[in-house]
Amino acid sequence: MVQLTTAGRLLEALNVMSPAARDAVALAAGLSAERADAAMIGALRLSLSEQLRLSEATIVLAPKLARHALRLRGQVLAARSYEARELVEQHSETPPQRWEVSPRLPR
């Protein structure tokens, strides 16, 4: 079963916009045409560094898709943090603010 990744969907959106735009972004990201094609159809998963480069190249060369590129960038950075075990520690509940515990106002 083919599972399209966020990077694959971004490449597909670039291809719908213009095949030349997709090729330009892939080239700027350092991806070969074969790897970009395979990622676009879900036959290949790009590495995290390739995905990050794809995101950055999209933001610069195809700003119309910047929102999708930023989503991919966020996912890549989260995955890198997870792999590096740099998880955010859970904090205990914060103490209630004064306005949260003040008595009800008269009606």
Task: Describe this protein with a few key phrases.
mainly alpha; 63% helix; 6 helices
Overall description:
The chain has one domain. 63% of the residues lie in helices and 0% in strands. It has 6 helices and no strands. The protein has helices at residues 6-17, 19-28, 33-41, 48-61, 66-83, 98-101. Helix 1 packs across helix 2 (19-28), helix 1 packs across helix 3 (33-41) and helix 4 (48-61) packs antiparallel against helix 5 (66-83).
Summary of the model, kept short:
The protein has 107 residues and is mainly alpha-helical.
Average pLDDT for all residues: 85
Question: Which H/E pattern describes the elements?
Answer: HHHHHH
Quaternary organization? single chain
The helicity comes to: 55-70%
Given the structure, what is the number of helices? 6
Structural class, please?
mainly alpha
Find the count of extended strands (DSSP E, 2+ residues): 0
